[in-house]
Amino acid sequence: MRLFKTLLMILTFLLFLLAINMLFFSYLKPGTSFSPVSIEPPRNITSYNGSLQFYPNMLFNHKIITYTIENTCEKAKYNNMIQAFSILENETSGLIKFQPASREPDIFVTCNQSVQELESKQKSSYFIAGEGGAERAVSTGEFWVIEKGKILLYYPRTKECLTYHVELHELLHVFGFKHSDNRYSMMYPVSECNQVLSDDIIREILRLYNLPELADIYITNVSAVKHGIYIDFDIEIKNQGIENARNITLILSSRNKAIDTFELKDINYGEGKIMNVENVRIPITMLNLDEITFSASSESEEMSTDNNNITLSIQS
User: Fold this and answer.
1) Residue 287 is part of which domain span?
2) pTM as predicted
3) Residue 89 and residue 253: Cα distance in Å, rounded?
């Protein structure tokens, strides 16, 4: 009997241990781990279902882009930033190139931030690793020309993911790309080591930087009145390209016969000039004109000249 009780106690104890073991493993469900697990993202992902950029057609108006990395950035961040530049160069097959500059860089990279600023940033639900964007951009109507970009890197040296991901994310913000809803995208708001630079971002960069770096002037808001042997007119000429238009000339004519010429000098991209002109003398041989053509031209090469001419019917 004593032997039976002893065996029963041993069996009960073993069953107790088995139950505890099963209970413990029921909390460690398949896939759960105490260490970070890197899940490979699917290939050829898409970052965006709609617009890719903060504003349409955001770009630098040149393909060699200069940068300065401030000496407040430790070596790891410096190397990651250089790697981010290199990745974008390689992914665009050298269409875009990055070069260091000691003065007036296109992109300024800094790691300097006061304690007060950093504490205010960390009140969100996740750690803000960095910020980047176009510090100054000019709207031309067709494009947003980026003139200056800035990258500010916050993350500490103890950050788990010590790769270039934060730097490349912020660099793409400078190029105008907004956040993505795809967690595998490099542009997802929260940085993870397994995020990738998606094909749709590269295609958009290639599209924008294969555009000609030219001016594009056009005529708008034009009106004219004929009174006797004179013409009064109002006209606005704008530059919607990505380069400045040099030495613009406005010619007034009727049926290929010149009436007068006006020199407007330069119009920078995103800017325009308004002219209000009175008492333009009509040549005596053209007093019966019933239409007038306004033609604008520039010494600079243009994207298109189809929008440089407007013809108005005119009455006395």
Assistant:
1) 217-313
2) 0.80
3) 49
The secondary structure of residue 304, as a DSSP letter, is -
**How many domains does the chain divide into?**
2
Are residues 193 and 225 both part of a single domain?
A: no
Mean pLDDT by 10 residues, the chain (316 residues): 50 46 32 37 80 96 97 92 97 97 95 56 46 93 96 71 87 96 93 90 97 97 94 97 98 95 97 97 93 97 96 85
Residues 176 and 248 in one domain: no
Residue 68: inside a domain: yes
Query: Which CA distances in Å does 203 have to 58, 169, 207?
Result: 14, 17, 6
- What is the token pair recorded at 169? 């994310």
Question: Helix or strand or coil: residue 278?
Answer: strand
Asked if 63 contacts 209 with a C-beta cutoff of 8 angstroms, the reply is: yes
Residue 316 is predicted with a pLDDT of: 66
User: Which amino acid does the sequence have at 200?
Assistant: D
Cα dist from 288 to 227, 253, 256, 316, whole Å: 11, 13, 14, 9
Q: Residues 75, 185: one domain?
A: yes
Q: Judging by beta carbons within 10 Å of its beta carbon (0-12, 13-18, 19+), is residue 277 exposed, middle or buried?
A: middle
Mark out the alpha helices in 52-114 (DSSP H runs): 75-91
- Separation between Cα atoms, residue 309 and residue 302, nearest integer Å: 14
